[in-house]
Structures are given as structure tokens and as C-alpha cells.
Specification:
About 50% of the residues are buried. The longest helix is centred in the C-terminal third of the chain and has 34 residues. A hairpin with a 2-residue loop joins strand 3 and strand 4. The chain is mainly alpha-helical and about 350 residues long. The strands form two sheets. The protein has a two-stranded antiparallel ribbon with strand order 1-2. The chain has one domain: Arp2/3 complex 21 kDa subunit ARPC3. The chain is built from ten helices and four strands, in the order ααββαααααββααα. Keywords: Cell membrane, Membrane, Transmembrane, Transmembrane helix, Transport. InterPro entries: CbiM/NikMN, PDGLE_dom. This is Cobalt ABC transporter permease.
Length: about 350
């Protein structure tokens, strides 16, 4: 759903840019709370890289149309909503600057739509479901599925609203809305499956690393005189060893590299939901050439590498590497700022 340059007029792009900037400022402050432990900052950088990798894996959803992960729900549940907005924003920035994917003048539109809307909507749905579902890991996974499913058509609605305000072509908004929402409900199913599988896999190994599962405890039940009673709460165990955290991080990074460097070659070549709707409805007649079209990595290929498989694989590996470094640097900086803010010196002690 990367919006290219030319779809939205300059005033509306400027307004969404201001909205995006405000959302990032709020998210930076909120991420200081979410990145409270040393375990979370590296995971946040990894989540950004993983989202980049999986977004390269377009999957078919209908005749001539494909979809890909947006990632807002996945990021929000794994590392928190504020940190999630930053994760997806880092991915969008890397894609726009290095890979000519998503317009640079439309960066505010894309951050507002793909990072802010998906994260806020999905996390609100996720928390609402956990409030009524039985406490347990299965509930977290099920809530993740529904939250991700809802987030994608929500983003389609947000794009339709932005286009209704500042679209550059004279196209019936009703037709745009029905086409966008219809295809993105199907894409949402793929998003939901990917999100639930990923959250379920992490929570099975390290539930303490899943922001959405914080406070999750499975109470031991004992049968006494034919009745089930709650066992005494055991003492809090120390945090897992750093080696265990490094193992999880390394496993996630290897998986991201494999997905981007190898599996991406087999992704669907069909246009994604927005591209298909834009072509069918004539929205793309105003599309402009990307400012980064001359990038050595434009269109997810390495310039001067003739072998398509090798070119795409190298671009994917480079993208994962750059994203994990950029994301980790951002989140380490945010966490260090938090540590400075709560230091004894800052309190005058």
C-alpha cells in the first residue's frame, strides 16, 4: 500500500506530513517507556528488519492482485504501539530512500496510513479482545490474528479518506472505497496469519519479550480434596540469560535474511492492492517518477547485477542489514535518552 508521488496533492501531503511528524514525536516519548529494559531495544530493531523482509513477500489474494504485510499490528504487539509506529516508519523511510518504494513527497501519507493507523487500530482491538478473552497465550495469539485482520482494511479506509481530500484525479470516491476495502479485507487475512504465527512463535519461546503478553501468568492449579485451588504464587525468577536473548535475536535475524535474500524470489509478481486499484480506476495517471529512481537498489534489485535471483537476493539482504542497523540505532538512542532522564542527576539527587 505504498503511495507513490503524484497520487495526493501538495497541500494534503504537507498536512499528512505534519500529522506524521507529530505522531513520531509522541511515539518517541512513548517508546522511552516501552523500551525500559535492555532486552527490548535490540528486539525493536529486529522487528523493523523482519517487517522489511516480509514486506518483500507478496502473496496472491485475487485474480491479478497480490498483498504484503503492513506490519503495524505485529510491531505493536511485539514491542508496543509507540515503538511499533517507529518500527514501521523506519522501514518506510528505508524503502523510500534506498528502494524507490513509496514516494518521498508521500512519506507523510505512508507513515500516517501504514504506520500510525495500522498500529493504533490494531493495538486498540488487541487490548479490547484481551480484556474479554480468558488469560492465556492462546488468547494473545487469537487477539493478534483479529487485530491484524482489522488493521489492513482500516488502512484502506484511511487512504480513501486522504484521497477524497487531496486526490489528484477525478475518480468516484465510492468506487475507490469499495475497491480498496474489498481487496484489503483479503490482504488482511494474509496479514492476520503472518502476525498470529509470528507472535505465537515468539510467545512460545520467550513470552517475556512480547509487549502484548506482559503480565501474562499461567497460575498453577492443584487438586486438594477433590477441589481445584490456586497454588501459591512462586517467587519471581531472574531474567533469562543474555545468551538466550542473543539466540532469539540471531534466529530472528537469520530468518529475516533468508526471507529477503531467498524466499522473496518466489513472491507474487502481481501488483499489490493499491497498485491494482490505482490502475483499474485511473488513479495512477498522475503518478510521478520517484526521486530515488536512480538508486543502485531501486525496485529491490542491485544495479549492474544481471542475474535476477542474485540481484533481488542481494538487495533484500542489504535492506535487512541497513534496516536492522538503522532501527537498532534509533531504539538504542531512545533508550539511552530514557536512562538519562531517570538518572539520579536528572532528579537532583
Amino acid at each position: 500500500m505504498h503511495v507513490p508521488d503524484g497520487f495526493i496533492d501538495a497541500p494534503t501531503s504537507a498536512v499528512t506530513g505534519a500529522v506524521a511528524a507529530g505522531a513520531l514525536a509522541v511515539s518517541l516519548r512513548g517508546a522511552r517507556r516501552e523500551l525500559g529494559g535492555e532486552r527490548t531495544a535490540p528486539l525493536a530493531g529486529l522487528v523493523a528488519a523482519f517487517i522489511f523482509a516480509v514486506q518483500m513477500l507478496n502473496f496472491p489474494v485475487a485474480a491479478g492482485t497480490s498483498g504484503h504485510l503492513l506490519g503495524g499490528a505485529l510491531a505493536a504487539i511485539l514491542v508496543g504501539p509507540c515503538t511499533g509506529v517507529l518500527c514501521v516508519s523506519v522501514v518506510l523511510l528505508m524503502q523510500g530512500v534506498l528502494f524507490a518504494d513509496g514516494g518521498l513527497t508521500a512519506l507523510g501519507v505512508n507513515i500516517t496510513d501504514m504506520a500510525l493507523v495500522t498500529t493504533v487500530v490494531s493495538y486498540a482491538v488487541f487490548r479490547a479482545l484481551l480484556a474479554v478473552l480468558p488469560t492465556g497465550r492462546r488468547s494473545v495469539t487469537a487477539a493478534s490474528f483479529v487485530a491484524a485482520l482489522v488493521s489492513v482494511p482500516a488502512a484502506a479506509c484511511a487512504f480513501t479518506l486522504i484521497y477524497a481530500i487531496g486526490g489528484t484525479t477525478d475518480v468516484s470516491i465510492g468506487k475507490v472505497a469499495s475497491a480498496m476495502i474489498g481487496v484489503h479485507v483479503l490482504i488482511g487475512l494474509g496479514e492476520a496469519v503472518i502476525t498470529a504465527l509470528t507472535v505465537g512463535a515468539v510467545i512460545a519461546v520467550r513470552p517475556d519479550l512480547v509487549h502484548g503478553a506482559r503480565g501474562l501468568r499461567r497460575r498453577l492449579r492443584l487438586r486438594v480434596d477433590g477441589r481445584l485451588i490456586d497454588a501459591p504464587v512462586p517467587p519471581v525468577l531472574p531474567a533469562a540469560a543474555p545468551a538466550s536473548r542473543r539466540k532469539v535475536w540471531a534466529t530472528g535475524l537469520v530468518a529475516s535474511l533468508v526471507l529477503a535474500g531467498f524466499v522473496s524470489f518466489y513472491a507474487s509478481a502481481n501488483p499489490d492492492g493499491l497498485e491494482k486499484v490505482a490502475h483499474d480506476k485511473g488513479i495512477d495517471t498522475k503518478a510521478e517518477k520517484h526521486a530515488s529512481a536512480g538508486s543502485p537498489l531501486a525496485d529491490y534489485g542491485v544495479r549492474d547485477v544481471s542475474d535476477a535471483r542474485l540481484s533481488g537476493g542481494l538487495a533484500g539482504v542489504i535492506g535487512v542489514g541497513v534496516t536492522v542497523v538503522a532501527g537498532s540505532a534509533v531504539f538504542w538512542a531512545v533508550r539511552r535518552r530514557r536512562d538519562t532522564d531517570v538518572s539520579p542527576v536528572s532528579h537532583g539527587l
